[in-house]
Amino acid sequence: MKNKSIIKYGFLLAILFLVLFLWENFAKDSDLRIFISTPSASINYFINNWENLFNATATTFIEAFVGLIVATIFSFTIIIICLFIPKLLDIVLPIMVTSQIIPLITLSPLIVLVFDIGIKSKIVMAALLCFFPIFINFANGINLIQKSIMELMEIYHISKIKQIRYFYFPLSLPSIMSGMKVSATFAVVGAIMAEFCGSKIGLGKNLFLASKRLNPELMITSLVLSAILGGLFYLLITAIESQLGKWYKQTNFEK
Amino acid sequence: MSIIVHNLSFAFNKTGKTIFNNLSFETSCRSIAIVGPSGCGKSTLLRIICGLIKKSSSNTLCGNISVNNISPSQMIQTNSVGFMFQEDTLLPYLSVIDNIKLPLLLQKRALTDVSQYVEKVGLSTDVDKYPRELSGGMRTRVALARTLITHPAILLLDEPFTGLDEYWRNTLYRELETLRSEINPFTALVTHHIEEALLLSNFIMVLGKNGNVLKEFSISKKLPRVFNEDPMDGLRGIQREIQTLIIEDSNEK
Lengths: 255, 253
Description:
The structure holds two protein chains of two kinds.
Chain A lengths: L1 H27 L4 H4 L2 H10 L1 H35 L1 H14 L8 H8 L3 H25 L3 H10 L3 H37 L6 H11 L2 H27 L3 H8 L2
Chain B lengths: L2 E10 L5 E10 L3 E5 L6 H9 L8 E9 L4 H6 L3 E4 L11 H11 L7 H7 L15 H13 L5 E5 L7 H18 L2 E5 L3 H7 L2 E5 L5 E6 L17 H16 L2
Parallel strand pairs in B: 3-7, 3-8, 5-6, 6-7
Antiparallel strand pairs in B: 1-2, 1-4, 8-9
Helix pairs in contact in B: 3-5, 5-6
């Protein structure tokens, strides 16, 4: 098993080095250099400008993270209200689904206009993108609860709060976490998109400036940092998942 | 009378399907079984008895029902019912011990009998396991302990042993009888398994496919019978009669 992992990761590393090697050698002596820079030039750029790049990444991280938290709180609140008033979900769900017809990314200029170019507009944009996957997965998780478990709740004759705490929430947890995983990467996309439309600092602003000023090193470093940020968010959710215990792993990975 | 069902009518408004039309029966026996072909309304009857199915805009429900002088509307409110479903309904995120003590925890009752119940169903060494780590028989054992730990006055069993092999069935019959003898609840068992009905009850109602009572059987042989050397001794004639009744009813157009 261990040997298999070593071979797998060794193979991936080898491919990465091969790509970097080819990129370095082909881009160095051609016009491609203007668009995609070279790995060595990008690394140099990162070393010389790490402070600015770090600040931009940290800003985008905060925007995306707060956006994800806001979306989680909102979606949980709406679902909980719907659990108290079950008929409300029949009204809310079609509205939510229909609202997804609008490509949310196109709303970012409007959001920047309404909420100013500060951090607020980025949080709103990230939250908007994150909200739906968490909400719909939570609702789906509730719909998937066995009829007999719903009847068991009735037999126990317990308050709605206890029903949510002991039944609805834990039984929907695998679905909620699936939604969170999707939203985690959406949060970064949302924050960057809003930064494109106007911001003082952030990875989105860097990408925008890099394309306008034809600065391939800034472009590549910002792209790599965005990818790392997306991965970091995904890992964060995976880390939370790993803390949910043995039952969760059995439910999700031993089907 | 332990159970009285008088002029029970039930229909779904949307499909217009009538499940029961003036169904009536009563008995003073404390352990009854309901058998009949698939779709005759056995499980529906059990849910109407305990108030899980109520009169609503989607159905028409009328008639008088009482078990131990408790009406269906009071049954759940007074926490008098223990219901065992066809599926074990164990919560996957709770260990064996936590699943068993769940009803006590939810109803704010003392957690005194828990280890005793775990022992009685033979799961002392598996208390920290999660449902997915247990076999079908063990899961049913947990569900049985969880249902009886609250000492329900009314125990409703909706085909709880379906899908289990002969060995587990017999083991669980014995465990059910041991636990039942301590709290003596009124028991209504819904099953497809005629032998199971004969082993665990002293009043059997055979429902027809139209929700009508085909025949009622009272069994004088004392309960519990599962510990006897030949538990079916003297009951095979009734078993054959019930089988014939169900087959004839199913074949009728």
